Amino acid sequence: MFRVLKNEMNRKKAMTKPEMDDELLRLHRMLKREIKEKFSSCLKLYILDAGSCNACEFELQNLFNPLYNISKVGVEVVYDIKEADMLLVTGLITENMYDELTLMYKQLKQPKHLVFIGDCPLGESIFKNTFAIKGHIKQEFSVSYSVLGCPPNPRVLMKGFLKYLESL
Amino acid sequence: MRLIARFAQEQEKYFEVITVYDLKVVKERINKKTPILLSIAKEYPSAVWFERKMLDDFGIKILYGTNKPSLVYHKQMVAETYPMRKGYRKKHLLYEKPLLFSALNTSLSLGPTQAYHLESSQFRFIEKNNTMTQFNTKNFYKHRGIEKMLEGLTLEEARPIVERISGSMSMAYQLAYLDIELQASKKELPMIIKKRHLFFLELERILNHLFDMSLICQFVEFKEGAFFLMKLHEEGRELLKKLTGHRYGFSTITIDGSLLSVEESDEYLFYLEQELLWFEKWISKEDYFWKKLLNQGVLLKKDIEAYGLVGLMARSVDIDLDRRQNDKLYMEYDFCRASEYTGDVSARFKIRLTEIFTSLSLIKPLIKNRVFPFFIGSIMDGEYYSYVESSSGELMMYISIKNQKIERFFLRDPSFLNAQILPHVMNGNLITSLGLISKSIPLSFSASDL
């Protein structure tokens, strides 16, 4: 009995929520409203790393941590592109990942929301002179929105998503 | 002997293949007209990817290796195009015709559907009764584009690029690079600055381990553990931003006057230690949690040795491999290597926790350290090797300098070795354990050829 109680207390302590500041609370509220209106309360993201240093993926994953917790406003990551509402692309779009991106873009349902994350997909990063990237990618895909930064931190990402959703 | 890396470079009249072992470096000259090299893959299975990459990079054919030809080489690429040769100066790779979808193997299923798993596009396997068979990783050149891009630059020009190669291991990359700059200028860094660098390398290790442990908890549906560790990780990232101006510490390993004060970390490090001591005590009684980790993704010592795995993969079967052991500074602080024996996910989880405590004990005394500026003098031509124990394992960097400019830059990231074990460890396991096993192995795919 004592052990069960102790365990319960430990779990409760571990789940103590970090405090959100006013800006985060406002972002949460507005994102929730936009997602409810435009995606029936559930925005499904498919994330494709197309040749990044991994910092952008880390920050995208951090969006789901207890502080930013965007799953609470209805954002979900899916692993089948056919289920996704939005395709998020990180990285330089290397030759090796170009096929994958083309395929994912083709399979993304209409209307195609393609969002670039970070400076790299736009070819603006410090790595822009590498031969291993496809280049001129903007001409081949219809990019809906770009969230810039190296990497964009979770707040910047949330603000970017909100701005894009508001524009729809 | 342990194989660390195998790569080629072009000299005026021949190709030079450099094989780096832990005890020696072997150089072989290869005829440029008929470039053929004897494979060492039978003795060192991890040589396979290195050798296949040499074929793609330089057109060096491998004799008596595996039958697998190129590593990633695109079928549509113009014949005899080898981008790492000196003569190749095109901005983009040359293709005979545009890439086609048919190049993709659509008969194999994609990865799993658990949250926090972003690498599904990197894996391929066939599902049979919920079990994975014929598992394969999408092969990758880790940083080939960057290696080529840095050729012809001075060390100073290349530095801002090197420090952004890896988001999660930027400190390790910066330290390896600085080590080469110091070797090339024949200078020794004052101990006081080395201590500051050690602080940041260990802080990076702590943050990466917290993140990985959180994901492991997530995959076994231990949501309280995941929540708790992710919270600590986020606080640590914010601390790093406060100390360095960046959540990933880009441009942190400096030697000049812009050295950073770390005194603000005092409170966080104390709090982190207390929280983790509590966490360790708590999970030691969570049998449900350990049952899910035990005997998952087991790797035997002989396999880990054969594939030359590094970092906590090696230490999870008590292989004596940690670059920090040979470092005078670490020894000054009584550094002790973590080790486990079972080679499964639970061992990899425990190693991470132990290493966080070790890192904390190392860096806490360093907070009050005052630092002074230091300058690197002129750079001498030559070949330089550097090794850093990053959070994912041993990182190797090689730079050849000629006329004060980079002639050849080569990186052996820990993932290039560790990823080769994935088919071996995955086949026969349930699909549901894919995320757990892959996340317990420190891997960074950089999605092919950053």
Account of the 3D structure:
The complex is a heterodimer of chains A (168) and B (450). Chain A has helices at residues 2-14, 22-39, 55-62, 95-107, 154-167, and strands at 43-49, 75-77, 86-90, 113-117, 145-147. Chain A has 168 residues and is an alpha/beta fold. Chain A has a single domain (44-167), classed as Rossmann fold (3-Layer(aba) Sandwich). Chain A has a five-stranded parallel beta sheet. In chain A, helix 2 runs parallel beside helix 5. The termini of chain A are far apart. Chain B is of the alpha+beta class and 450 residues long. Chain B has two domains: 3-95 and 111-137, no CATH class; 155-440, Cytochrome-c3 Hydrogenase, chain B (Orthogonal Bundle), CATH 1.10.645. Chain B contains 15 helices and ten strands. Chain B starts with a strand and ends in a 10-residue tail after the last helix. At the A-B interface, helix 1, strand 1, helix 3 and helix 4 of A face helix 2, helix 6 and helix 7 of B.
Strands of chain A, total number: 5
Average pLDDT of chain A, rounded to a whole number, is 89
Query: Total number of helical segments of chain B?
Result: 15
Helix content of chain B: 25-40%
Question: Which percent range fits the helix content of chain A?
Answer: 25-40%
Oligomerization status of the protein chains: heterodimer
Instruction: Look at the structure and give the CATH class of the largest domain in chain B.
Output: Mainly Alpha
The overall pLDDT of chain B, averaged over residues, is: 86
Uncertain segments of chain B are 99-118
N-to-C SSE string of chain A, H for helix and E for strand: HHEHEEHEEH
Count up the domains of chain B. Answer: 2
Strand neighbour order, sheet with most strands of chain A:
2-1-3-4-5
Q: Report on the biggest sheet of chain A.
A: 5 strands, parallel
